[in-house]
Design brief:
The complex is a heterodimer of chains A (457) and B (363). Chain A is mainly alpha-helical. In chain A, 47% of the residues lie in helices and 12% in strands. Chain A contains 19 helices and ten strands. In chain A, helix 13 links the parallel strand 6 and strand 7. In chain A, helix 5 packs antiparallel against helix 12, helix 6 packs antiparallel against helix 7 and helix 17 runs antiparallel to helix 18. Helix content of chain B is 63%, strand content 5%. With 363 residues, chain B is mainly alpha-helical. Chain B has one domain. Classes of the chains: A mainly alpha (457), B mainly alpha (363). The interface between A and B is medium-sized, with 34 and 30 residues.
Chain lengths: 457, 363
């Protein structure tokens, strides 16, 4: 343990009869992300008391979800943890699927695992990078952002967006992986490993960096559990609780990986745990790619597909002869790549019309598809799970991300409650900060990886 | 006209050119910093400012920055002490600039009967003068922190005060070993005596005589210039800095001071430890090669080569300080005190003892 720890502050110094300086850090403070306020009472540079004020990014997600249909909630979940939106997407969809009693296809589950782990790596990259930047190591931050860029490119390729991805569909995902994705993903992982190695050399054994992190922001395992903290934060205290192992969901039980744990529960342990988790996540991605069966079924192109726009042009001229045997080919911008892979990423396409959006080729191409789409999208007709309630937790970037969904049998959820991993951590923040110095707020707060999107919802 | 008058005029011109050079270099360093960090971070760096479609690798950003700083509102907080608030940046930049007067940037320039010293102030306590002015420059920071009436800048001012105490001490004492070796506080003499050679081949530079002193000096020098890893008075992500309430050109002056101090530390490192304008093998009459061949040069040319050598050394140290700045994270306030008082200070005293012992044994 570092000799600069908080241990040399005795109770007397904290209780001493001096008037402290009250300092208001945030929300307009560079390290507070603009979304949280710490009201601190200082004795010199020592922090006597911290009052954490949250709620600056409250968007009434839970209430909005009650007003929207089950499908319409998905875009809201993108905005929860905006650093790893895919995990939120999948968590919500899995909860609704559990409510409806649907089992997704194996390929779909592999896709979810791979995309979740890509998100987890980008989440940790952001956290480690941002906290390094706030400690002054700007170069390390940009190296890590470069690595995150490789992963975001993958996300962009699969989902068509980088942040507000809305990739999940209840019972499946929007589209299968594009062609050649596996090779590019494995390549990106290789690049990320290179960057991580570089950053490792730059930071991990850096004396200044270690001094800033070691023994700072300490929390005991008991305290962490008492506050309900999960994720890398809890694991840094030595508890190996990881939902992917503790209650395996999707296909995590078929994939071999380790759960790194720390021993002291300080900032440095959290940094190391995150670094190792990135490595493990990349291992999971590689394993998942190896185990994943090629599920995409390519439709043979014997003149059976013509672009929808051409079909419209022809129809305007009255040339509709023989249209019944053509499949319209929808432009990818209208999400027209789904149909080929529909069977692989959705369970039994034909019989699950009550919740599953039809492929856009069908929506635009035949009346059954259009009707199906219409029924699902129209308010009052959409996906309506049976009455009941479920809780489905997934391992998010910061810990247990749980969705508790209550259905009253209509097409809108009666209640959607999110268990955000940040919230318990923020409740423990005063405990970690008091007795440390002002400069340590930055290090500890960085290692908390507070994402206001999911904290305030 | 008398010889003295012409000499003085020429000296004034040379010193004026040197000052302008320093100021332009400070401006240029803002660009260098951007580009250097960009190179280190796999980026392109600033390249958007253009005049008639010419961009010149983003060099116009210096002008754009200056225009921005000058035209912005220079805000004064309502509760601030207005006089001290406005005085602080002036003190900061003035005392940083005045130190350059004592820096010898070249050997005496000789044309026939005229001898022009390439130094603003050639006096016996040049080294002390520089350290004194540097210490006063910190008052600018302290005043800025205290007069803005903001808790964050107040913390910055406090940090600057304690950092000054911790580092000036080690820095001043690290130089004493050097002064013992050369027996002078006159910077010009210091540089002249560095023109000798040890064992006939190794330049008698401060770096070779005082390696420990150099390391302590450099660390303390970086702390002096208040840049990462010692930017705790600024601490942009912690307390935002002693200048948090400043805007416009008043902020710009603090910004400029940082770069001026970077140049000053580079100048001092070059003058004290790397022979100033001395070039190995270059004597008054030209280059002396290993094999005894002498390439005669006029004394005028030798001096000019010396000036360029000095500029090169400054540029090297500026680059070196930039590289450090973009590599390391920031210290914490108490760790800095620990480093300053418990490590560098004893080390610099040990350096004096070692130097004294060696000098005693050799004499």
């Amino acid at each position: 343990m570092s000799e600069y720890s908080k241990l040399d502050v005795t109770q007397e110094t904290i209780d001493a009869e001096t008037e402290g300086m009250t300092i208001n850090m945030g929300p307009a403070h560079p390290a507070m992300h603009g979304v949280v306020r710490l009201i601190m009472n200082l004795d010199g540079e020592r922090i006597r008391k911290v009052d954490v004020e949250i709620g600056y990014l409250h968007r009434a997600f839970e209430k909005s979800a009650e007003q929207a249909g089950y499908l319409q909630v998905i875009p809201y979940t993108d905005r929860l943890n905006y650093v790893s939106p895919l995990i939120n997407n999948f968590g919500y969809a899995s909860a609704v699927e559990k409510l409806m009693g649907i089992e997704t296809t194996e390929r779909c589950q592999f896709i979810r695992v791979i995309m979740s782990e890509i998100s987890r790596v980008s989440d940790h990259l952001t956290c480690v990078g941002a906290s390094a930047m706030e400690l002054g190591a700007f170069t390390a931050f940009l190296y890590l952002m470069k690595a995150r860029e490789y992963l975001y490119e993958l996300v962009e390729e699969v989902t068509g967006a980088r942040l507000t991805i809305s990739y999940v569909r209840i019972g499946g995902v929007k589209a299968d992986f594009p062609e050649g994705f596996k090779g590019r993903a494995l390549n990106a992982i290789k690049e990320v490993r290179k960057v991580l190695k570089e950053t490792n050399q730059l930071l991990t054994r850096n004396r200044i960096f270690m001094d800033r992190l070691e023994g700072i922001g300490l929390i005991s395992q008991e305290d962490a559990i008492a506050h309900g903290i999960t994720g890398p934060f809890l694991r840094s205290t030595g508890c190996d609780f990881d939902l992917r192992k503790a209650s395996p969901y999707w296909v995590y039980d078929r994939i071999d990986f380790d759960v790194p744990v720390g021993s002291r529960g300080d900032n440095y342990d959290r940094y190391l745990v995150r670094l190792e988790e990135m490595e493990q996540s990349m291992r999971i991605i590689e394993k998942a790619f190896a185990l994943m069966k090629e599920g995409s079924i390519r439709v043979d192109a014997q003149g059976k597909e013509i672009p929808a726009s051409l079909m419209v042009d022809e129809a305007k001229m009255g040339n509709t002869k023989g249209f019944w045997q053509f499949e319209p080919q929808v432009d990818p911008t209208l999400e027209g790549t789904a149909k080929k892979n529909q069977k692989a990423i959705y369970p039994d396409v034909e019989d699950k019309k009550e919740f599953m959006l039809p492929a856009k080729e069908n929506t635009y191409g035949n009346i059954e598809g259009l009707m199906n789409h219409f029924k699902l999208i129209m308010i009052g007709h959409g996906t309506s799970p049976p009455k009941g309630e479920v809780y489905f937790p997934v391992e998010g970037g910061n810990g247990e991300l749980g969705f508790y969904v209550v259905s009253d049998g209509t097409d809108r959820p009666y209640r959607v409650r999110v268990h955000p991993p940040c919230f318990p951590i923020m409740s423990a923040l005063p405990k970690m900060l008091e007795g440390d110095m002002v400069a340590d707020v930055i290090a500890t707060f960085g290692s908390v990886n507070m994402i206001a999107g999911e904290l305030d919802r | 006209m008398s010889v003295v008058f012409i000499q003085s005029t020429l000296q004034l011109v040379a010193v004026f050119a040197f000052f302008m050079g320093v100021l332009s270099l400070a401006g240029l360093l803002t660009w260098v910093e951007r580009k250097q960090s960009a190179v280190m971070q796999d980026r392109i760096g600033a390249n958007r400012a253009e005049i008639f479609g010419f961009r010149f690798f983003g060099l116009f950003h210096i002008i754009a920055d200056a225009i921005k700083m000058l035209t912005k509102e220079s805000f004064i907080p309502a509760k601030a002490d207005k006089f001290l608030y406005q005085l602080a940046p002036i003190i900061s930049v003035f005392f940083a600039l005045i130190t350059f007067a004592a820096i010898p940037f070249g050997n005496d320039l000789k044309f026939g009967e005229y001898v022009v010293p390439l130094q603003g102030l050639d006096f016996n306590v040049g080294l002390l003068f520089i350290f004194a002015m540097l210490s006063i420059a910190v008052y600018g920071v302290i005043l800025a922190g205290f007069s803005s009436q903001s808790n964050f800048s107040f913390l910055g001012g406090l940090r600057a005060t304690s950092q000054l105490l911790a580092y000036e001490m080690a820095m001043g004492i690290s130089i004493i070993g050097l002064v013992m070796c050369y027996g002078s506080l006159n910077l010009n003499e210091l540089v002249h005596s560095q023109g000798d050679y040890l064992w006939g081949w190794l330049p008698k530079w401060g770096f070779f005589l005082q390696p420990l002193g150099f390391i302590i000096f450099l660390i303390a020098g970086i702390a002096e210039s208040k840049r990462v890893p010692f930017d705790i008075p600024e601490g942009e992500s912690e307390i935002v800095g002693y200048f948090v309430e400043y805007s416009g050109m008043r902020f710009g002056l603090f910004f400029l001071t940082d770069f001026l101090e970077t140049i000053l530390i580079s100048c001092l490192a070059a003058v004290l430890f790397f022979g100033g304008w001395q070039v190995p093998g270059l004597f008054e009459d030209g280059f002396h090669f290993w094999n005894g061949v002498v390439w005669n040069l006029p004394s005028f040319v030798v001096t000019i080569i010396g000036v360029f050598a000095f500029i090169f050394k400054i540029a090297f140290f500026c680059w070196f300080l930039m590289t450090i700045r973009w590599t390391l994270p920031r210290f914490r306030y108490d760790q800095l005190m620990h480093l300053g008082w418990k490590i560098l200070f004893p080390l610099s005293i040990a350096n004096i003892l070692i130097t004294g012992t060696v000098i005693l044994l050799l004499s």
